[in-house]
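Hey team,

Filing this mostly as a record. A colleague (T.K.) asked me to run one chain through the structure pipeline before their review meeting, and I want the input and output archived in the tracker in case anyone asks later how it was produced. No errors, nothing strange. Just documentation.

Input sequence:
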Amino acid sequence: MNNFKFPYSRADVNKSDIKAVVKVLENQYLAQGNVVKNFENSMKKKFKVSDAIVCNSGTAALHSVYRSIGLDKKNGIITTPITFLATANAAKMCNAPVFFADVDSQTGLMTPKSLKEAFNKVKFKVKAVVVVHLGGHICDLEGISKIAKKNGSYVIEDACHALGAIYYGKEKSYVGSCKYSLASTFSFHAIKNITMGEGGAITTNNISLANKIRLNISHGMIKEKRKMINSPKDSPWYYQMRDFGWNYRASEISCALGLNQFKRIDRIIKKRNLTANLYKKYLSSNNNIILPNFSKNLYAKGWHLFQLSIDFKKLKIKKHLFMKHLSNHSIGSQVHYIPLVNQPYYKNNVEKKFLIGSNIYYQNTISIPMYTSLTKQDVKYISRVVNDFFN
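Output structure:
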């Protein structure tokens, strides 16, 4: 990995995070203790949901939801091709088919219009529509949920980029409140808005679904006597398994870090919003760049990423030369994402030719540094280097 002075992302870890982790290490319980429960209860309270389940990755979160709603060979998903591999791969882990809806060429988000078009083309039963709040920008949940409901499908939110963001619909609600979805999934990977190193979570208002997910993340193992079939008396050690599951549990150590960071999620989003607005100040005069959408509403964007849209083809320049220019000034950059239909595994998806918006978005998008420790001078410097490339 390149050792940039300004990587495209960096974790927000402070002394109180380290203290929280050390405290767990000094305790005898390193797994399945109260820290995990406290983290889940904090999420429940924040998002006002019936249940929150913490697990060991965003992929585990997605797979657990998919399997628990019954994805299989005949019941698949519609999702976006502009996302990380896990959004679709977790469905393939259930042997389920995947169909891709196009996205808006500027935002990279699935729209009600593109979802409706996808439903008109898909050949299998769609159990769920999986939206991705790319970079922390939130999809039109109201519009998408109406179309999904009309077609007898659930909405699942891949909210890995949008922890702490608020959706402003008829009523404002946190992403994770599941007001328009069956479940929301989160990632707490090293460079997400909060981190567990590796980790994830699911929120839902469906108790039955939550119970299935809890079994899925812990071997399918039942310990409560009242839920067992013919459990033997006087056997406190006894456990039972009616269906298999995985070991997707999160440790007390990683949850200590995640919980401590979650307590300051509002401050983290506020700082990212300030950074985004500094970029707006220093880059808005550059006519070669289209900036991401901004909002006057507080916490309306998660700002996990700061993505520029540059028509490299029209400007007759190569994207990699722009990235090299940034790299020469110790500035990291990345592309989020290569459309999944461009991957060899998904190359046989016949709808690729219809994904015009996705292709334009991919050709034009590039992510520049976005993290909480960036100062005003840092953003000013990065912006100057970006602008100098076009001068």
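Quick notes for T.K.: The radius of gyration is 22 Å. The CA atoms of residues 225 and 236 lie 9 Å apart.
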